Predict the structure of EAL domain-containing protein.
Amino acid sequence: MTSAPAPAPPAAVRAQCPLRRLVRAPVVLTVATGAAGVCLVAAPAAVQHASGALLAATGVLVLLLGARRTAAPAGWRWYAGALAVTCAGGALIRLVTDVPASAVLGAVAGHLLTVVALVRLRGAWRTGRAQLVTAAALSAIATLLAVRLVLAPLDAGPGTAGLLRAAVLVVPVTVALTTAAALLFLGTVDPRRRGVAGLLLAAQAVMAGASTLAVLAWGEVPPSLAVWTRPATAVAVVLVCVACRLDVPRDAEGSGPRPVGVTVALLPHAMAVVAGCLLFLRIGLTGSADGVDVALAVVGLLVVLAHQAVMWRTQQRLTADLLRSQSYFATLVRSSADPVVILDDRLRITFASRALTDLLGLDPEQAVGRALLDVVHRDDATALFGRPPGPAGTGSTVRTARVRHTDGRWRLIQATVRDLRDDPDVGGLVLYCRDVTAATPAGDPDPALLELSLTDPVTGLPNRAALVRRLSALRAEAGGRPRSLAVLGISGLDALPGESGAAALRGITARLVRVLRGEDWLARTKDGDFAVVADGSVADAEVLAARLVACVGTLTTPAGPVALHACGGVTVLPDDLDPAEALRQCDLALRSARAAGPGSVHRHDDALRLQQDRQDTLRADLACALEGGQLRLVFQPVVDVVLHRTVSVEALLRWTHPVLGEISPAEFVPLAEQSPLISTLGRWVLGQACATVAALPDPDLAVAVNVSARQVQGGSLVPDVLAALAASGLPAGRLVVELTESLLLDSDAVIEDLTTLRQLGVRVAVDDFGTGWSSLAYLVGLPIDVLKMDRQFLAGVEHDTQRQALCRSVLHLGGSLGLPVVVEGVTTDTELTLLRDMGHRFLQGYALARPLEVAQLVQGHWPTGVVATGVASASAR
């Protein structure tokens, strides 16, 4: 079965020729034509006339045949007519006079038709008429002055003084008109036809030069110039034909009104400057200016004055239109009963309508600069802003949240969120808020409005507000059958874009509903969290939660299959338990389950309560730990087992609590990373680490500092590093910044910051390498210098051949990329010996040295040699 021939590509596709074709073809043809014209200079007069006539006829034919396939057929037919009239007029004038150069006078009519052709090629006028008309007028004046300056020394020969004088007067005018028309075409044409307009302007410039040369040759000043008129004319004809060939039709895109560009706006002023310079040059060369020059100067000044007047009136009209438009839309916003709020990237209010006063009791002017999250319920903050509303400028998302009025009452709103950060007129997130609080002082609430305020818009399930109402109602039923609360947390949804995420939530909801029993009650509390009010004991709720967790797995979405994981937290619901406390207990149990790993289900108990109380205490005390001198740095050496010396130390943070004693970094570092204190803490660690190592006697010892995700993502990493290096005097090459693989995947801004640090000389290390998304292709394009192999690779490495193979693979990967590999977590002599025999050179861990206090570093108590068994000989062991 034969396939049908492919259809011809549309004109818009054919028009997309490469830029080199647009430039190369005119250049090649122009050079070839000019060379041919020069070769014909020595030919007999009859041959020259015949070749000129043939070229003109060919040009007319090309323009007529190609006009129907162009963007402006009528204009190109006028151009063909102008070329024909130019050649015919030149031939007729030569019958009257024997001077070959007199053909320039016969071409005047053709030049005037060229002006008409250029105007017809332009098509419909758009914006910027005043700028363009005045630019054309000033361009004509400048061209007239230029040609008159060139023709000033001309002396008409005997017998032809009358015709020559006419040529001296007429030719500058026609040259000025055609050049101005071509310049006008270039300044107003569609940008996609800008190349065509440039060729026509070049053609008219060449034709203007040929006409000027012809008049000079007519006057024999100097006579040798006559040989260049024919090649120049031929080049102009070829350029016009090439422009016609390239002027293919375009689609309608961009055919609407366009704002005036800076080139068009400045064109009148540029032409005025050129005209003034030419006038001063003529006066300087001739010593005076005749009446024509003075008249041209006066006309030019009047044109500039008219241009300024028109621009002033246009500016006044546009300003009035803008103010009227602003007033119109401001009135609409003010009269709207629903508040409109615009937020910046930090979720701070940049604009608020007057209706915000009714919703929150805040004056719109006082609200500007405040963070909207200050008035949003903390349980609803993630639901409102946790997931972006989608690609900037596309669609909208409806979110439900509770906001606090200044009188302390909570209001329930539905906010339509639109991301217009890429819109230069807005530059932020726009919230269209509607108060859907289902409570009125008198009478019952509207049932439809009440249902809307208690329903999740994505899944159709009851939302968090409905869950609170349900728990309150169960509390009022004292003495009823036992019930429990289970909260299900699903991870993996954040990576899905808008509609795919919504489809995944609906798919998960369908799976959960199939697992529920008859009396169980399901709600969606926030992005990836679901809650179930379950009948029966807490043990029954644990079984139900385990079944719900098990039903979450791989899900097919519009974005493709996605692997989801879930954990569960369970608590009992006694009659006297406040709904807020019940939700807090479930959140604690869920947090504990997440720490245990995917698929876990934990019940709330006293141990969890004590653990949460301890975390709350540490979180509160951490704010004053830095000021109270409770935080300090210790330094663990990294040993080069080949050179038998310490090459760097890693700065590690320690906390000695005045009551609880030594706090494990695994316990307080996650708390610090969740608090705003982490940025201040990160700067302090950088400054202390650099200052400590800079004061040591070893001039080659480097220091590695871990940086937090918030410090990197907040854009403060580069300034913090520069400040630490400047304050300590530590050379940039002795600082190593360590960060995790996930941060390297975060954004292009992170990559730019790391690239800047490397350019300064700071080295970048990937910490815990092998636990994230590393691959060879991924590593090649990243600005990194060191790989730190995670200690998980060493679990059982003495007897596990597969783990030994992994260790060798990481070493080979680093070597192939030219990146040194540091193995951390080396705790036994056997591991040390095994890794050294594999070829690993840089090792870190208790088998070499424990973390050292600052005093030990200053006294030089770190590993300086490696004995035969591979164990560091250091007093710090």
